[in-house]
Give the backbone structure.
Amino acid sequence: MDRSVAPGAGEVAARLLRLVGGGGNVDGVAHCMTRLRLSLRDPALVDDAGVRGTEGVLGVVADDGAYQIVLGPGRVARVTERFQALVAEDVASRVTTPSGAGGAPSAARATDADALAARGDAMRDARRRRNATPLKSALRRVAAVFVPLIPALIGCGIIAGLGGLLANLHASGHADWAGALVPALVAVAGGFMSLLAVFVGINTAREFGGTPVLGGAAAAVIVFPGVAKVEVFGQHLAPGQGGVLGALGAALLAVQVEKWCRRWVPESVDVLVTPTLTVLVSGLATLYVLMVAAGAVASAVGEFATWLLTAGGGPAGFVLGGLFLPLVMLGLHQALIPIHATLIEQQGYTVLLPVLAMAGAGQVGAAAAVYARLRRNESVRRTIRSALPAGLLGIGEPLIYGVSLPLGRPFVTACFGGAVGGGVLGLLEQWTGPVGATAIGPSGWALFPLLAGAGGLLHSVAVYGIGLAAGYAAGFAATYAFGLSRQQLAELNAGNSVPAAE
């Protein structure tokens, strides 16, 4: 493929580094499943328009000091690796690159698309200022504990699904050769999950300012088989009791104990006393308090989530699917990450994620309707064409901030589409059995390989697919009929500047 059409990871990384102000302006580099996440010293040095116009960039999210560039799954890891290397080289050589270097974007966007993007940026910035509360900052930090774990969750989830499929084929007599392979796949997939609490402990300590290995040591108590010999309130503990919630609490406590020790323990004995007290105090508290309390909370979460969709059915799915996009806008969706992880640890899958993924289906349907209605506005249609494939794979930011939110009504009708998809999915689950995801992160079509449920893979795929189709159809129909006012249709199809959202 011509590199001018599809630039390589190194090319994209080099251009982005120039556009964000060079290596001297970069404080930190990380990535999640779809986004390159940058901590910048001076956000004013960023050529935001240039970043958005870079080939391969699907969108930009600036949130509480973090500059996030949406690149999509797979590609983001390659670009991040090259970006980190270039930052190191840039800083080491002390070469200053002017902000905005790198030439004009390869494809200039017309006025209407620029106006939509500018309005989306303004809305996002206003939301960020309104939502910069201590609670939401804490939720973001908790989310940062789990985001690095997503690639392993996805990989192990797919391997577990493959193992289950082969086990079923072997049991039915159609794959005798799979008998020896299934246990190996179970071991490969289950190894990480069995130690998930340890990884949560390590990441928690790192995120909250402690020593990562001490956080991991405190959390490791939860999965140690020997806890079965410990008796609390007349009952023996069970290995894994409390799960990721207990691990989170154990590591947070370890961080506080360690910080206290660093303040009060003499330097001459710090290397011996601090780690000992940190592990001892947090470990005993985990055994006698956190495992019991977190275990009760985790059990309640699992029972409630299962009850919600089996008893609530269509109405519950309608509410969950319809409210998820607003939750994302408010930043409250991050509170669901530990809940998803708890359900995966308990049941092998989270029943909430497929329902919440219907919000993305409504968004895709709404964008398709806007595309159909604006036949004469090539600028906005080009934006939708470039963002729609990402939307189908569950990456909704380009469509949200580039199309539906700045136009106003399409965001509401997208929520309606998500509600209908969630309602259909919830109703089918109530009738035929639960459907879940074995990992968090992907949605849209990318969630198909990670589906699981009581009825098997084919049942899960069919139910989820029907829900997606309902979300697409409802989002399209509602947006086509009500998503654009007559004034918006007239002005956008005439090529005028974008009218105010109604």
